[in-house]
């Protein structure tokens, strides 16, 4: 038995592990090594003329439990996060030599389960071929049939492991997050910025308020600056009229690096940060915008209820077929914490119900360092994502996605204005509690008929 365990725990892994990174990266690269392992067990049985291989089966099961069992337990403990498997784990599978090095050095863990299972079954097949040759195939009784069924079912576990992983992680970076904001820069004679058609009734010629805000609102405050700021050139505009993500724009206001921040309702965390910094905020509502959900254009689902969306993002509804779509698992994408979209999702849609942890993008860079961040929407056939209407349909036009109805209502400007669309939020001009005179003048102008006209022409829905 001792030498059998040596062959199971050492020799077979040495044979199969010779595929190295190729076997862990591409499953088909394991096939030659598995065939070689099959041949090894055939010749071993042939050389010793083994007619009863029950001891070999027991030894192989022990090896299978050691390699695949420990791997599965570690994967469960790490919530199916292959990249969280300790870098020390490969020392437990050191006989897999080159593959062990690849796993430890480059974190190629995804196909390890299949490698262990392939080692086990290729050994079994090698022995069975010899038994078939000598016409002494083992007879199947109820006990053996039961054991065989259990082994087969356990061997299918990697399918579930990868399914559980795909619900939580992706190695697809998703659609490009690059957005050309140059087309919305003020004082550059571009045609994308909304125009009043007549001179603004407010003119600011000096002490220009420093503006910043969410990316989605850049066209609004950029157009306002172009209409109101007089005597400014593009070089000045680049310094005074900035655009950042919502968290960065909010922080710039808190730390006095901007005078006005244009964004949606700040999150509770952001409000807490302002309070901690002893900053009192003044918020002026400028307009409204729809919060929308979108899917791949080929997805047959055209409408979801709010309760269905909540269920999807709590991972209670896992398959599209449960909401009228195809039988495929739902990849529900979220946004980074603190972003305007994520805050809207938490406050308007979930309404106190807890979101599951966001799908994360995981990969390794050229130096072998782990990249781990909130995954961007990839528009796969089973994907769903969310954003604000103007950003999703105008700023990042993508003909391969479609915006779906919520509670049967489409997010049109008319439905936003009349209140029929259920997910409508406000956006604000936010300042510290004592804004400068020109900052207040600009905000007041944006609430006038002329300022509201500019907001409407940009593509948002004003408050008037």
UniProtKB/TrEMBL annotation:
InterPro entries: PBP_domain (IPR024370), Phosphate_ABC_transporter (IPR050811). The keyword Ubl conjugation does not apply. GO terms for biological process: phosphate ion transport. The chain crosses the membrane at residues 57-77, 89-108, 114-132, 144-163. It is found in: Cell membrane. Keywords: Lipoprotein, Membrane, Palmitate, Phosphate transport, Signal, Transmembrane, Transmembrane helix, Transport. Residues 210-448 form the PBP domain. It is a lipid-anchor. It holds the Pfam family PBP_like_2. GO terms for cellular component: plasma membrane. The complex is composed of two ATP-binding proteins (PstB), two transmembrane proteins (PstC and PstA) and a solute-binding protein (PstS). Part of the ABC transporter complex PstSACB involved in phosphate import. PANTHER family: PERIPLASMIC PHOSPHATE BINDING COMPONENT OF PHOSPHATE ABC TRANSPORTER, PHOSPHATE-BINDING PROTEIN PSTS. Belongs to the PstS family. This is Phosphate ABC superfamily ATP binding cassette transporter periplasmic family protein. It comes from Lentilactobacillus sunkii DSM 19904.
């Amino acid at each position: 038995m001792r030498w059998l365990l040596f062959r199971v725990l050492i020799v077979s892994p040495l044979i199969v592990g010779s595929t190295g990174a190729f076997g862990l990266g591409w499953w088909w690269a394991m096939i030659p090594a598995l065939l070689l392992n099959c041949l090894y067990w055939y010749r071993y049985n042939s050389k010793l003329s083994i007619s009863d291989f029950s001891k070999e089966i027991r030894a192989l099961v022990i090896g299978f439990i050691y390699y695949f069992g420990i791997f599965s337990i570690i994967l469960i403990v790490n919530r199916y996060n292959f990249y969280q498997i300790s870098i020390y784990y490969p020392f437990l599978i050191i006989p897999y030599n080159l593959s062990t090095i690849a796993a430890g050095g480059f974190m190629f863990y995804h196909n390890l389960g299949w490698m262990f299972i392939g080692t086990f079954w290729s050994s079994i097949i090698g022995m069975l071929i010899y038994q078939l040759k000598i016409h002494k195939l083992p007879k199947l009784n109820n006990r053996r049939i039961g054991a065989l069924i259990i082994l087969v079912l356990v061997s299918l576990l990697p399918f579930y492991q990868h399914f559980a992983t795909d619900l939580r992680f992706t190695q697809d970076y998703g659609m490009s997050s690059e957005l050309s904001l140059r087309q919305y820069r003020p004082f550059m004679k571009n045609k994308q910025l909304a125009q009043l058609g007549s001179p603004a009734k407010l003119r600011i010629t000096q002490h220009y308020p420093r503006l910043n805000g969410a990316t989605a609102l850049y066209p609004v405050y950029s157009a306002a600056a172009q209409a109101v700021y007089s005597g400014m050139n593009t070089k000045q505009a680049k310094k005074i009229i900035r655009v950042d993500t919502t968290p960065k724009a909010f922080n710039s206001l808190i730390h006095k690096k901007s005078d006005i921040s244009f964004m949606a309702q700040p999150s509770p965390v952001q409000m807490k940060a302002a309070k901690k910094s002893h900053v009192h905020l003044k918020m002026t509502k400028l307009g409204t915008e729809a919060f929308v959900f979108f899917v791949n254009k080929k997805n047959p689902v055209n409408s979801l209820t709010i309760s269905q969306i909540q269920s999807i993002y709590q991972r209670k509804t896992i398959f599209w077929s449960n909401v009228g779509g195809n039988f495929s698992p739902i990849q529900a994408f979220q946004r980074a914490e603190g972003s305007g979209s994520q805050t809207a999702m938490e406050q308007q849609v979930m309404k106190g119900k807890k979101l599951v942890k966001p799908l994360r993008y995981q990969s390794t860079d050229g130096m072998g360092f782990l990249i781990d961040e909130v995954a961007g929407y990839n528009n796969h056939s089973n994907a769903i994502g969310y954003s604000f209407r103007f950003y999703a349909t105008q700023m990042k036009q993508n003909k391969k996605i479609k915006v779906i109805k919520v509670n049967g209502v489409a997010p049109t400007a008319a439905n936003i204005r009349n209140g029929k669309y259920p997910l409508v939020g406000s956006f604000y001009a936010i300042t510290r509690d004592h804004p400068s005179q020109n900052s207040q003048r600009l905000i007041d102008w944006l609430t006038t008929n002329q300022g509201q006209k500019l907001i409407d022409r940009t593509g948002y829905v004003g408050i008037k």
